[in-house]
Each structure stands twice: as C-alpha cells, then as structure tokens.
Design goal:
It is built from nine helices and 23 strands. By secondary structure, it is an alpha+beta fold. A hairpin with a 2-residue loop joins strand 20 and strand 21.
C-alpha cells in the first residue's frame, strides 16, 4: 500500500513539473499552444527549486517500482520516457544548445570575416570611439549574446540578439553599477527572455529591465545599435571587427551545435517567410502594417514611433521629428545602406546629415533607444501606443 502511494504520488508530481518545464521553457511547445508570460517568468525564477522537487519525486517513483514492486511496468516505462523528454530535452536545450558567448566571443578582421559573410548580408553594429563591431544575424542565432572581456574599446558592452524578433540590441550588462551574469532562458511574444543569475529575475530583451523592477525601475543601459550591410560596414569601418561564432574544439559538441544551428536556421527562415508568427503567443495585433514588416522603432519615455525604410527614402532620406519631447533626426544612408537615428539638441532644423552624424548644425549623437529592423508585430506587441511613420 505504501509503495503504491509513493509510486503514484512520485509519478504525478514529477510528470506535472516536467510538463510545465517543457511547456514554459522548451520553446517547441509554443508552436502548438499559447503559454502565458507569467507562467514562463515563474519557472525562470524557480527553475532549480522546481527541478529538484521534480527529480526527487521521480526518484521516489523509481524506488517504489524497483524496490517495492509498485505500479504497472508499462506505466513505469512510459513515465520514464516522458520524464527524459520533459526534463532532459528542456535542460539540454536551455543550458547547452543556447549557451551564450557573452564573455568569450571571437571577433575577426574584415578580410577573415569576408570568407563567411556575403557582402549584402545585414549586420548589427555597435561602435565606440571609432572601434566598431559587426554582428551578422546568422552568427548570433545560436549564442544570442556576444561580447568579450576587452569590451567595446574598454566599455562593458555586449550584443543581445533575438532571431524571433529579428532584433539586436547592444547593452551594458549592468544595473545601477551591478554587473549582471546573463543567460538565455526562453522567448515570449516572439522576443528573447534573459535571466539575471544573481536574482533569477527575467529580463525581456526589448525592454532591458528585470521584471521585479518594472518599467519605471532601473534597467540595463542600451548602447546605440544600428543595422547596415556588410559591404557598407567595410566602407565605414575598414578596421572594424566582425563577430563569427567560435566553434567548439570538441568534435561531438561541434556536431551538436551544427544540428542545433540548422534547426534554428530553418525555423527562423520560416519566421521571415510566412505572415503568421512561428510561435503565436502574441497578446496584441495591429494591422496598420503587415505582420512581418521590418521597422525601425524609437521609444523615449512613454512615447514610441516606428518607421519603415521605404517611408524614410520617400521622405528624401531625412526626417526631422521628435519622440518623447526630444528632437531627433531619422536618416537613410544609401552609401552605407543604413538607417540612423540621431538626437538633435541644436535647436536647428537639419537639412543635411551623413552616416556618421555630421550635419549642417554640427555632429549629432546616435540615439541609443533605436531598435533596428525588427518585425512590426513584435514592436507593436511591446509598444502598442506607437505611431507609424511620424512626419
């Protein structure tokens, strides 16, 4: 009797926790069912506690079956298979397949990187004092985070990337002077969720703050981040550095990474190709633009606006406007194939500006709040109050 109780109690507890783990952090489940953001956040905060309970419960079930002859053999066999799927797959996916390179990224010079990157490929760029780093989307797809101990000309800046959103943002991985150890945990609403390992708090990539702090609390400081073609990057920064995913020296790990990268590439290609989100866990929709339109979004305070590249070009490659009461200039550079957004605190209307921010009113600084070339449906999910193509 005791053995039977232990078997069924252990089975139910371990399977329930395992399924929730698989559902909330396993990604693939979100292709067929909606998962609530609060459920994902709860498991992120309590992952190790819940895993400990689930594994102990599984151990109790196994002990009751093997030593106390409790439970049918077929139920035991099916349960073990499900537990391996729920716990094994999810843990390997989250903690091994998506392991990041926030402190160990490899940066090549342009000549070496050109062997791996097509000139027309889009790259995500951060720059400091003329030191520039380009990050091709396909190289960022698996690690999601790229940086090294040298920093960006001494600044502690890493690139964060979400393939589901087509969004790269440079961040200083610290809040109020406290360094964060960031790991990749999940996605929701087609945007990456990171975890601060010190507090176990989720951080939505597009927002940059810990869930517990809220939008009015402290957050990571974004670094001006912009897109351009690799050919344009070579012209603008001939001495630039290019991120190329550092392969493992272990042949089995390298094979595993190749398979994982291939699976990710196939999924992201579909995300770009079809109108419906690959993982449709969105909570907001807006038909002002087609779902997968690439937009350049700026949010300052409670104000938000996004632009399509076509509108900027039709506006003569230059738009003077304001966001959150702050004057800005939105410009398209046909030479470097890049949309740039700059602060304009000169009090003068800008009539000419180049890729580097040199204008008729002097040098203008890049806006660090720009999100470059992400999908419209992701931008409007997080900024539903957004204007579109504000003149």
């Amino acid at each position: 009797m005791i053995g039977t109780v232990l078997f069924w109690a252990g089975l139910v507890i371990s399977l329930v926790i395992g399924f929730i783990y698989f559902r909330d952090l396993g990604d693939v489940v979100q292709m067929i069912m909606k998962v609530k953001r609060e459920d994902t956040a709860r498991f992120i905060r309590n992952e190790y506690k819940l895993l400990t309970i689930g594994i102990v419960a599984a151990g109790v079930m196994i002990f009751a079956h093997l030593r106390m002859d409790a439970g049918p053999n077929w139920v035991f066999g099916v349960s073990i298979a499900l537990l391996l799927l729920f716990y094994g797959f999810t843990y390997v996916w989250v903690h091994f397949a998506l392991r990041n390179q926030a402190n160990s990224a490899q940066f090549l010079n342009i000549a070496e990187a050109g062997k791996f990157i097509h000139p027309a490929s889009s790259v995500i760029v951060i720059e400091n004092n003329g030191v520039a780093r380009a990050h091709p989307d396909h190289e960022l797809l698996q690690p999601h985070l790229a940086g090294n101990e040298d920093g960006l000309d001494g600044e502690n800046v890493i690139m964060t990337y979400c393939g589901m959103a087509n969004l790269g943002i440079g961040y200083k991985p610290e809040i109020e002077g406290e360094d964060l150890k960031l790991t990749v945990l999940a996605q929701h609403c087609n945007n990456l969720i990171l975890r601060d390992e010190a507090s176990n708090e989720p951080i939505q990539q597009i927002l940059g703050f810990r869930d517990r702090d809220g939008k009015n609390g402290p957050a990571m400081t974004p670094w001006p981040t912009f897109r351009m073609t690799f050919e344009g990057f070579k012209k603008a920064y001939p001495d630039g550095q290019v991120f190329v995913k550092k392969p493992s020296g272990n042949p089995l790990v390298r094979l595993f990474d190749f398979v994982t990268g291939t699976v990710l590439s196939v999924g992201i290609e579909q995300q770009h190709r079809i109108d419906k989100p690959l993982m449709d866990n969105m909570t907001h929709s807006d038909d002002r633009l087609p779902t997968k339109t690439y937009v350049w979004g700026i949010n300052i305070g409670d104000d938000a606006v996004c632009y399509t590249k076509e509108f900027i070009i039709e506006s003569g490659n230059l738009i003077n406007t304001s966001v959150g009461g702050r004057p800005i200039v939105v410009a398209w550079s046909p030479i470097y194939q890049s949309v740039g957004v700059f602060y304009n605190d000169t009090g003068t209307s800008i009539t000419e500006i180049d890729f580097f921010g040199k204008s008729n009113a002097g040098n203008l600084p890049r806006c660090e709040m720009l999100k470059s070339g992400l999908f419209w449906h992701v931008w409007v999910e997080f900024f539903p109050q957004t204007d579109v193509n504000r003149a």
